[in-house]
Amino acid sequence: MLMRINGTNRLNLFRDEMDQLVDSFFNQPIHQVAPAYPALNVWEDDDNLYAEAELPGLRMENLELQVQGNELVIKGERKNQNDEGTTYHRRERGVGTFSRLVRLPVDVDAENVEATLRHGVLTVTLPKAAAAKPRKIEVKALSS
């Protein structure tokens, strides 16, 4: 199909090409947001909240946990290995410090929080504060 192009059509073609260029530029991911680290699962039962974090290669001496009210903070550091004379072909495991704050659904009893690290998985048991625990209310019958 042969199309005659006058000044107005050229402007429209140019605008269409620019629109395509801008769309292709902005619709492509320029950078991807890194997922939160460490990856966490948080769940609860009647008495406790539990947080489980994947921390392969870390030791407890490289971790710090803080609990206040309904917030859990996990801080740590994965130290850089001696890289002298090393040529990396791929380096995806992060090094350096990290910090993750998690807002919990209820306040916890910070004095009785326990944490264990086993096979690269940190498990934190967070007892619920007394005010956050469900309590059974006795219903009294009134005689009329």
How would you describe what is shown here?
The chain is an alpha+beta fold and 144 residues long. It has one helix spanning 7-26, and strands at residues 40-44, 48-54, 63-68, 71-78, 96-103, 114-118, 121-127. The protein has a domain at 40-80 and 95-132: Immunoglobulin-like, CATH 2.60.40. The strands form two sheets. The chain has a four-stranded antiparallel sheet with strand order 1-2-7-6, with no helix packed on it. The model has no long low-confidence stretch (mean pLDDT 83).
List keywords for this structure.
144 residues; alpha+beta; Immunoglobulin-like; 4-stranded antiparallel sheet; 1 helix; 14% helix
Topology diagram in text:
Layout: H1 7-26, E1 40-44, E2 48-54, E3 63-68, E4 71-78, E5 96-103, E6 114-118, E7 121-127
Antiparallel strand pairs: 1-2, 2-7, 3-4, 4-5, 6-7
Q: What is the count of β-strands?
A: 7
CATH topology annotation of the domain at 40-80 and 95-132: Immunoglobulin-like
SS-based class: alpha+beta
Rounded radius of gyration (Å): 28 Å
Order of helices and strands: HEEEEEEE
Short description:
This protein is an alpha+beta fold and about 140 residues long.
